[in-house]
Design goal:
Blueprint: E1 5-6, E2 16-18, H1 42-45, H2 51-58, E3 63-65, H3 68-74, E4 82-84, H4 86-92, E5 97-102, H5 113-125, E6 130-135, H6 139-151, E7 154-160, H7 161-166, H8 168-176, E8 180-184, H9 190-198, H10 206-218, E9 223-225, H11 232-237, H12 239-251, E10 258-262, H13 267-281, E11 287-293, H14 298-301, E12 303-308, E13 317-322, H15 344-351, E14 356-360, H16 362-376, H17 382-401, E15 406-411, H18 419-426, H19 437-443
Parallel strand pairs: 5-15, 6-7, 6-9, 7-8, 10-11, 10-15, 11-14
Antiparallel strand pairs: 1-4, 2-3, 4-5, 12-13
Helix pairs in contact: 3-5, 4-16, 5-6, 6-8, 9-10, 12-13, 16-17
Length: about 450
């Protein structure tokens, strides 16, 4: 049996992030000022982002150096291990080789600190005192809470209400690091009060929570807003995942046939897949698959249009696959995948045929999550379980075809705070919620018309 883990040394942590914008055959459409509908300029973003992140958002440089202060903190958990899923392979009786990059070893238990630490560093450098943000399942809020504590910043987290209620220990986790956690929609902001006036029992959404966090930041001169996915600079910071994975697979003299990650806003998928897509642009055969829930199938059922990144329309207009900025997804347990839009870079790559997308229901996803936990010993987060299920499907296809395939997926976080979800699955309380034609028709109504 070959090695169960492929480990890099600390000196092998990437020294620069990979920027896919340098290599994309065609760049994505620019974000637009929501008032003028003209391409945004740095001043449009200066109220909520520091100069370095604004520069990274628009950069076309292939490699952007990772600051030493960020690398020092990365060393707390990076490089992360690459595992060979021997026991899962045996259970599936597949000739495929299955590898997973395990990001759950980070202090927050997910991939999110890769960008949280970078964003906190650049905001501290710019003299900012407090960061506001949103969080769905809580992984991002946890990561930013830790990062803010490392750099001496205050942190305010607007947590989607359904997740706030489902995952009380996520809230406790964030509060341990000094964050203020507010269920969203809340009475703290005009955006939240408007939603509550119309829908007092609203479960909330990432779009609503973003609106509240942005409003909070804009109204306070010493505060900035921090986003955990979607934006170019966030996807840039996550590229350390794929860069390490490429180095680890090279040590095993292997290259993946397919790269798989779950998809909510795009940072998880981009972090693993983008460094491999650099090779695809140069002619290498590799598939990249983004996996989403049927309850919120942004790529597989969304429309490729300009839309707001938040519910209240405070953000610039971004051309992306969207279900409509006021769409409130059902309260599935994979809270981190309940976002109405997809990153501009991911959307462009999907639209141009460089990547694939698949959607699955939560009961089949949890079935694969249990199989993985019982064979590999790691309890996966519901979000990461989507990637596991797609890998299981891929391995089964390899078995049926009698083909040897190398499958790589991102196990982006553990599920230690998600035991309520597992309770519901074990008690047969989960069902497969699907984005219906009625939802699709309703979601089209408020997408802005861009000339």
């Amino acid at each position: 049996m070959s090695e169960a883990k492929i480990i890099l040394e600390e000196k092998e942590i990437p020294r620069a992030w990979y920027n896919i914008q340098a290599d994309m055959p065609e760049p994505p459409s620019p974000p637009l000022n929501s008032v003028t509908q003209q391409p945004t300029v740095p001043d449009d973003l200066a109220a909520i982002f520091p100069p370095d992140l604004i520069a990274q958002e628009a950069s076309r440089e292939r490699w952007i150096e990772i600051p030493g202060e960020v690398l020092e903190i990365y060393r707390l958990w990076r490089p992360t291990p690459l595992h060979r899923a021997h026991r899962l392979e045996q259970a599936l009786q597949t000739p495929a080789q299955i590898y997973y990059k395990y990001e759950g070893v980070s202090p927050a238990g997910s991939h999110k600190p890769n960008t949280a630490v970078a964003q906190a560093y650049y905001n501290k450098k710019a003299g900012i005192k407090r960061l506001t943000t949103e969080t769905g399942a809580g992984q991002w809020g946890s990561a930013l809470s830790i990062a803010c504590r490392f750099f001496g910043l205050e942190c305010t987290v607007y947590m989607v209400r359904v997740s706030y209620n489902q995952k009380p220990y996520r809230r406790s986790f964030m509060e341990v690091y000094g964050a203020q956690v507010i269920p969203s929609p809340s009475a703290e902001t005009a955006a939240g009060r408007k939603v509550l006036a119309d829908h007092p029992d609203s479960p909330g959404s990432l779009g609503i929570a973003i609106s509240e966090a942005v409003e909070d930041a804009v109204q306070h001169g010493d505060a900035n807003y921090s986003l955990g996915s979607v934006l170019n600079h966030v996807l840039l910071h996550q590229s350390v995942i794929g860069l390490e994975a490429k180095a680890q697979m090279a040590k095993a003299d292997l290259y993946p046939d397919v790269v798989i990650a779950c998809h909510g806003g795009g940072s998880n998928f981009a972090g693993l897949a983008f460094p491999f897509l650099q090779d695809k642009f140069q002619g290498k055969e590799v598939r990249a698959v983004a996996v989403e829930p049927t309850a919120c199938p942004t790529l597989t059922r969304g429309q490729y249009l300009y839309d707001f990144g938040d519910t209240a329309g405070l953000t610039p207009l971004i051309r992306m696959y969207t279900l409509g900025h006021d769409f409130i997804p059902p309260g599935i347990h994979a809270g981190g995948l309940r976002y109405h839009g997809a990153a501009s870079l991911v959307s462009k790559l999907y639209h141009d045929g460089y990547i694939e997308a698949q959607a699955y229901g939560q009961t089949e996803v949890f079935q694969s999550a249990l199989l993985f936990a019982q064979t590999e010993g790691i309890l996966p987060a519901p979000e990461a379980a989507h990637a596991i299920h797609a890998a299981v499907v891929e391995a089964a296809a390899a078995r049926e075809a009698g083909e040897k395939r190398v499958i790589l997926f991102n196990l982006s976080g553990h599920g230690h705070f998600d035991l309520t979800a597992y309770d519901d699955y074990l008690e047969n309380k989960l069902n497969n919620i699907t984005f219906s034609p009625e939802m699709q028709a309703e979601s089209k109504k408020t997408i802005p018309k861009v000339e």
